[in-house]
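Q: What residues go here?
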């Protein structure tokens, strides 16, 4: 259970040494309780107190790493019931189911097709990450065919512990999620997982059995767990998902403090219904959703929904401040400057690229605000932008001219910019990015 600031203070040395950066131990304790400080900042806390505080400060929902490479993901690690309270951290993993009864050639063809389902939006590669391989005797060969023909991370699905063990060994170094651990086999599955150092997913018949299994697996040494409550109707799986999250966060019940895996593919054979169920579960706390098949019509809307839900509502998506060359610019190419709101960047850069005019695009940190909003908030003022262009961006070392183009919506800053940039020409670009192509083709640097 989370400790209060006073409870934390009682475990600190009480020397008020200020080494942590806070004026007093009480102030440090309050910052620690509110998540504004790290325990490592206190050099004098005793080992016993450190152990107590570390345990108390552990996330209420244990984060579990699954997979490898670009498709590796984390399940769990969440700290709030509702997105607007803070943010959701680890996006729901999306995967497709493959039976080991398929031929190896068919498995290879299927995962290669699924591999193409990648969509680049606002600088991100949106894609499914997982293949769930289900079966028995041929599980190891099927799982190996998946990783040999794609970069998908793998979840193993078999109640045959011997098959599960063989498949886990075949995927050495790939960190598969293995299971299901049930009330009948959890000790054997735990032994496989502990030996291979991989996470386990458990399958219960109800929430009461979930608690029994998480305790049993943890005592057997398998600490990294993912929960399947066993629900196989849309209503029940949704209810269980909400109940688990509330029990972990509101009830502070560590037995339920794990991420979840859900199987819409086992709720219905209808792929459209699977997608509808998955959409509700992406919104309401599922760590992983498993579909019977993947195609663009299925995956793309789920990926966009996931992106929206797992984007921090209190922090806009931003682009790193700096210089972005477009169309192979040289020392005589025009220079544009705009804010670091991701949508602004991608719209502007897309239009500049479409113009085929070699250009330098400067992105200034505006705390993720769009041009007009940033200007109104004082985050895109003339003197600051001028100083950025002249001293902080580094563009003066890349060009021979002294011209810079600013967004039309920020025309009011041109005068202040000219004061900061003596001898420079501050050109006012179009108000709408759609007009950049024509503007750049006609623009002449000076």
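A:
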């Amino acid at each position: 259970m989370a400790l209060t600031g006073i409870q934390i203070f009682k475990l600190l040395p009480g020397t008020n040494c200020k080494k942590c950066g806070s004026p007093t131990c009480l102030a440090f304790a309050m910052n620690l309780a509110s998540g504004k400080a790290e325990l490592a900042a206190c050099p004098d806390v005793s080992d016993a107190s450190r152990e107590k505080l570390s345990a108390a400060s552990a996330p209420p929902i244990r984060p579990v790493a699954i997979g490898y490479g670009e498709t590796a993901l984390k399940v769990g690690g969440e700290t709030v019931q509702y997105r607007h309270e803070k943010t959701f951290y680890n996006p729901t993993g999306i995967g497709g189911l493959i039976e080991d009864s398929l031929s190896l050639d068919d498995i290879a063809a299927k995962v290669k097709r699924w591999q193409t389902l990648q969509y680049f939006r606002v600088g991100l590669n949106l894609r499914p990450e997982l293949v769930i391989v289900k079966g028995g005797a041929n599980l190891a060969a099927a799982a190996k065919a998946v990783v040999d023909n794609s970069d998908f991370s793998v979840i193993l699905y078999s109640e045959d512990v011997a098959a599960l063990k063989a498949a886990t060994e075949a995927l050495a170094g790939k960190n598969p999620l293995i299971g299901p651990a049930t009330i009948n086999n959890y000790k054997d599955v735990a032994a496989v997982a502990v030996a291979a150092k991989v996470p386990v997913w458990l399958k219960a018949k109800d929430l009461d059995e979930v608690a029994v299994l998480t305790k049993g697996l943890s005592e057997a040494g398998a600490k990294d767990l993912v929960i399947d409550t066993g629900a196989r109707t849309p209503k029940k799986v949704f209810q269980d998902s909400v109940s688990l999250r509330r029990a972990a966060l509101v009830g502070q019940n560590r037995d339920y403090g794990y991420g979840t895996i859900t199987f819409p593919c086992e709720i219905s054979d209808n792929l459209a219904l699977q997608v509808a169920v998955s959409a509700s579960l992406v919104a309401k706390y599922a760590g992983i959703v498993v579909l019977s098949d993947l195609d663009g019509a299925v995956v793309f809307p789920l990926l966009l929904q996931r992106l929206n839900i797992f984007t921090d509502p209190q922090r806009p998506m931003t682009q790193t401040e700096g210089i972005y060359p477009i169309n192979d610019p040289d020392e005589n190419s025009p220079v544009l400057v705009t804010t670091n709101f991701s949508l602004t960047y991608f719209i502007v850069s897309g239009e500049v690229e479409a113009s085929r005019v070699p250009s330098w695009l400067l992105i200034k940190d505006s705390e993720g605000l769009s041009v007009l909003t940033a200007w109104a908030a004082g985050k895109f003022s003339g003197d600051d932008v001028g100083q950025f262009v002249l001293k902080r961006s580094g563009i003066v070392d890349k060009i021979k001219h002294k011209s810079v183009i600013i967004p039309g919506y920020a025309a009011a800053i041109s005068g202040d910019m000219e004061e900061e940039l003596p001898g420079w020409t501050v050109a006012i670009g179009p108000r709408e990015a759609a007009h950049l192509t024509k503007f750049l083709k006609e623009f002449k640097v000076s």
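A: Context that may help when evaluating the design: The chain has a mean pLDDT of 93. Residues 214 and 313 are 32 Å apart (CA to CA).
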